[in-house]
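Lay summary. Proteins are chains of building blocks that fold into shapes, and those shapes determine what they do. In this project we predict the shape from the chain. Here is one chain we studied, written as its sequence of building blocks.
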Amino acid sequence: MSPTTLEAQGLLIQQHNTNNPSSDAGKKITDFLGKVKNKTGDLEKILKEKDKHGILAKVKEGAEQVGTKIQAKVETVVKQINETGKESSDGIKRITPRMEATHVMEVAQLLLSLIHSWGLDPHLDKVCESQLGLLRPMVPISFGVLSKGGYMSLLLPTWQNTIKQETVQKLLQSSDMQLSKALPENLLRQEALTKLFTARLHWELSTTITSNHLLGMVAMSNTLMSMKMATFVPESERARKLMKQATKNNVAWASDDDHEEQLITEQQAQIKQGWSLLSTHHCFLLPDKIDAMEPKNFKRPQVELMARRWQHHCIEIREAAQQMLLGELGRMGKKGRKQLVENWAQYLPQYTHTEPIVQQTQPSSPGSTSPSALSPSAAQQQQAEAEEEVEEEEEVVRQKPSSLAELKRKQSTAVIILGVIGAEFGQDISIETGANGKKPTTEQQQRRKSSIVEGFGIGNNNLARLTAMALTHLLLAPPTPKLPAYTQLRRAAIDLIGRGFTVWEPYLDVSKVLLGLLEISCDSSRLVPSLTYKLPLTPQADACRTARHALRLIATARPAAFITTMAREVARYNTLQQNSQALSVPLTQSVLHRAKKEILQCVEMLIEKMQSDMAALLVEVTDITLHCLDMSDLKNRSLNEVCPSICKFNQVSHCSSTRRIAVGASNGHMAIYELRQNKCQMIPAHSQPITALAFSPDGKYLVSYSCSENRLSFWQTSTGMFGLGQSQTRCIKGYSTAPIPDIARLNPMRLGKLIWINNRTVTLMLADGSETRFNV
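And here is the predicted shape, written in a compact code that computers can read:
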């Protein structure tokens, strides 16, 4: 995107075009001297009137000499500034970005080098040093954490006292330490302790340190992986490696430039692969490697901390937190997830239409203020601050909340944790005993396994229902000071509704959910250019993108539910449009009108991905498509030009001269849309699904074909004078067609196609290549 577009989207702070700063400084000095001179002149007039002895004349003479010298000096300085200013400012402009970039990369290199788990994977360590440019620490580092109150606690190296001497001796005798025999004993011991600390003890200190270090490592690795040549290896070293590789692979090339370009491409691929290995190692492989060295000592990442960052405002941290949370939940196993659900189920708020977000029946301290009670902007600011601070460790989840703010935080975390487990692992959590305390029978177990929803719940699927209600409430609740419009919690609810729609669907009002998502995403073209857009977005734009993604997840997970629901809403909209005079609010303000573009994009995506599923719902798909299209476009252009995706079906035909669209349904009916009158007529044409139909070039005839019925029919449509009056479509001729082989039925979208040769003759083209002509 160009800078102008970025500024228009509100994604870039507009930089004012300033002149040369040095010339501005000279201008300010000159203006100041001018004001002083004017003030001096005024004072001189007043003093002249009061001076009788000529004392001031002598003082003035001396002052004029001093003033002349000062002014001459100032003018000389201003002249020098103006002459050299441009050159110096250009130099500063050239140096500053380079300096900033260098410092940023040095800090990144230092952080990644300190928190990487050196010693666990020798191959990865070699890649980190040679390709990525990380630096292996020479001494163990003492880390620390910040508490909620802003206090810092350092973890001092007292861990060294707990290490057995045998462990150090074993490390000193290892093969890779043999090369350092010439070093003094104290340095050898320090090197052994460093290797032990970075490989294992670093991850046995604290769950908070493990969580934040892994989150930082995964987020930064993914960010650097997405860049072209992000490596900390110096430029000279990279050039030397390229030269070495070029001489090693000394082959006849088309040209030196092509050779060099290919080597750079290979080097880029190696660097990206290195960052990918680093990210995968810390996100998924690290716990198992440490458990293999020292079982049950690894401090696992905090699920609660990752859940709070599920929709972090920084996209890289958000994606890293989601990866790590799903990895940790998968590592827990079925039993661990079930226990986690039971621990957090008590904090799941009972969201209804009348109850507030934070239940007032809970005890609260008089001085505590809930973030939700602040203004929307203050609440968002406080929420952003709360995201950044490191939470203290909480070993016991069932601890009673100490304040209303903490209760709200636990409720928000519970909604996200239960939403994630329900959406991603809902089928795994089973009920071991029935409602009466007896174990379920084999038949009941099979039924539970076959149902995703029945798996997620503690007694009669209550938990799945309550979680679905909570997510729906967060999506649909109107903005209030307690629950602002665009918060992290709302965004998480939108995301989880999309991810786990198959789990929540029995407990949702699908129409309300889809309309709520469309309401948020209807300004998508203005706020978000694409779903893969990575620049920092405003909270509204971020919610808009999340809602767009959720709509697509719902549409692909339940295409039939999405299409039938949207068709029902379109029919309701058309009914209101016919009685629009009685409405107090214009229909142009309705969600279905404003979200036409978004709905059409979802339908086109479904046609592209699930063409056979859409063929079974073709009349409903056409209803939605015609609602989203501008009817004035169909006056001078064909349907294939306006909406090419719907014309991929042989069961759809458009006649520009009579302004009709015919659609063949899976139940054998034909739907004929009169675009002039905005009406649709359903005609029972065949007893089996219609395979293809087409209007004649002059629009007088319509031919339909059903391969299951082996029949082809010609239809004549007549209307009153000037196109007025009720149109009547009647069958004028029918033919029996040859049955098509079963092998040809494997691709239902290519069973047959009808092409008119002239106004009276049509050709039926089958998938096996045969052609048959029929006359009216």
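What the prediction tells us: Residues 10-22, 353-398, 430-455 have pLDDT under 50 and may be disordered.
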